[in-house]
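FAQ
Q: What does a multi-component entry look like?
A: The components come first, one per line:
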Amino acid sequence: MSDEHIDEISGVSTTGHEWDGIRELNNPLPRWWVITFYVTIVWAIGYTIAYPAWPLLHSATTGVLGYSSRNEVRNELTAAEAAKGKYISAVESKSVSEIAADDGLREFAIAAGGAAFKVNCVQCHGSGAQGSKGFPNLNDDDWLWGGKAEQIQQTITHGIRFASDPDTRLSEMPAFGDIITADQIAQVSAYVASLSGKVRDASLIQPGAKVFAENCVACHGDNAKGNREFGAPDLTDAIWLYGSGETAIAAQVRAPKQGVMPAWVGRLGEIKVKELAVYVHSLGGGE
Amino acid sequence: MRDKTQLTGLETETVNSAKTRKPLYAARQKIFPKRASGNFRRFKWLVMTITLGIYYLAAWLPWARGPFAPDQAVLLDLANRRFYFFFIEIWPQEFFYVAGLLVMAGVGLFLITSTVGRAWCGYACPQTVWVDLFLVVERAIEGDRNARMKLDAGPWTARKLMLRLSKHAVWLVIGAATGGAWIFYFADAPTLVGELFTGTAPPVAYITVAVLTATTYTFGGLMREQVCTYMCPWPRIQAAMLDESSLTVTYNDWRGEPRSRHAKKVLAAGLPVGDCVDCNACVAVCPMGIDIRDGQQMECITCALCIDACDGVMDKLGKERGLISYATLSDYNANMMLATAGGSSSVNPSQVRTADGLFSDKVAHFHIRKIFRPRTYVYMGIWSLIGLGLLYSLLTRDRLEVNVLHDRNPQFVTLSDGSIRNGYTVKLLNMIPEPRTIVVAIQGLQGAEMSVVGDDIPEGRSFAIPVEPDRLKMLKVFVRQPADQIQGTAQTFKFRVEDKASFEADEYTATFNAPETAR
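Then the predicted structure of the entire assembly, as tokens:
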């Protein structure tokens, strides 16, 4: 702009633009502001030299300080691992019952096992390990294969009815629909239901006991208390994996459902399995 | 197009036109306060000694706290979230005591300001106290007002450089001591002072010392009265709390005007003359650099040093003290009416005096009774009520507490015998510095029994558990109720904790959940 316009009132030159008679004063920026501005520019140049900044074709400039945020994370992770190292090696060398007996180690194992549980186990057993129909509740005191820490560890390590693991826990309830008659199934279901509750037709109980004695005692025992050797459930207690009541029992007699749990040791390793065993044991039902 | 009113232009003047442009911030004029002496000055020395003494030394008072906290009488233990003040120990949930004290401080400010004016600003404000301290240093090194003015105006000589350097050095030492004293309230003082000098103290300690050194030095040494005038909100707020019965430092122009340095000549000429001899002593001592004779001003912190200065002059002249005095606006107005004959003439001091030169009976004087009025009674009432409430709460507060969290997932567990079990996290708070054994019991919930995870305590209705001093103990508790005792899906019962030794107890009402058909 050659012809400079001076604002009459303030005596300050304007930018020369005009909007509906309003002009913008061309006051200089405060000196401290300008100096700060230049300082930030100088700072920025130094910064981009010192730290990684400029993108190149395949990577970026590395900076003269050798700083890298990936290295920071790596170092922090290493430090975190190192901090846990003493516990990890203790977990590795001790048995699960020894771990559970040591206050500090137990707390560590419960925290680590709880985290592993959230990732690997909640899909079937629920986020509070409360289970659902067909998937055992791990909080209660009923254990098909035993509730001691070592027994839980064994179950997690090798799974249940997991075909590719030779040491897996195996139990097989025959499908009695092909072996006994429908009447006999109704009778035995009434008898089993009567062991822990009421039944609709009490006259079925007596013949049902006979059917039970002929077919079921081999696994479930004379008193129907089950047998952990074979993973045979206690039929007198209040906990039913596949539902309580005559109908659910009859269905399980006729054509039993048999759940499968994978063997976890191959995927999680011994240490994680131990931690999981301690965690599950601590849920309140451990023996 | 012209308006119908034919308005062609207005006679206006811009507030800050180019011709007369003035910056809104007036450049600072250096102030060289002269040393005052008198009753108010003595009172300020006393307040300064007490407040600085408390600030620098209170962190060093010992008080046995047991193995869980440093043995300090006043301690803000942020890491463990405990505040200790002599025999009072505050846990985070008791922070309302601090809030209560702040409310009391607020109401106390109303009370003090409505009675004796800006006493906070004049005597107790840290800015005032530290500026006063810095001025003591300045006077000791550079001399009093005249010497300082001469030094300041003079050229830079070796002596001036030496004086200035030593002054700033002492100021910085005071600043560092101020920052240093602050951090001792947050940690074990003797340990920290050792760490501080061996370079092993936590970084936050050094940062705090550095920040407080810088602010003390800048505010107390360099900025001084500018902090009060430009930065502090209190002058604005306090000014709004004053009324016509509040005491303020007042120049009594009804007896001082017309001022003259040549009273005798003026009197001989038959003109009225006031008590003020225009000696400017009141201006020379003012740390705010104002002239109190211009009337009440926002900058005035009512430190009353001008009263001391003027009283000294009045004594020398053989006149009554109190030309500058603490006065209420209503008294001042009454006296002014008297001196101006009801406003019909300019000030004539002879109007307030009798023939023998004494003040007439009509002159109003301050009386202590005047500060007791409905407003001050209300403030005093509120202040005392809050204080008594806090005190009552402090004397009767619980030192044993229980908090319970109910497990939400799962809400309940059916056990093999059909009984139902709920899990709870029970937190026991032992808020005294001694260990104690706390008995936890359940009340209600027929037939229910508890077990604790990780403890070999047999199932039962109650168990005793040792809790460390000043600590929170967290227990995972399972409560089991037999199936035949369950009444409904949600029953309430109580966790009761009790210290058998002191009979202190607390209760928590918890819920017990069960399925709709148990067994």
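Q: Is there any commentary attached?
A: Sometimes. For this entry: The interface with chain B takes residues 9-12, 103, 106, 126-130, 137, 139-142, 196-197, 234, 237-239, 282, 284-285 of chain A (CB under 8 Å).
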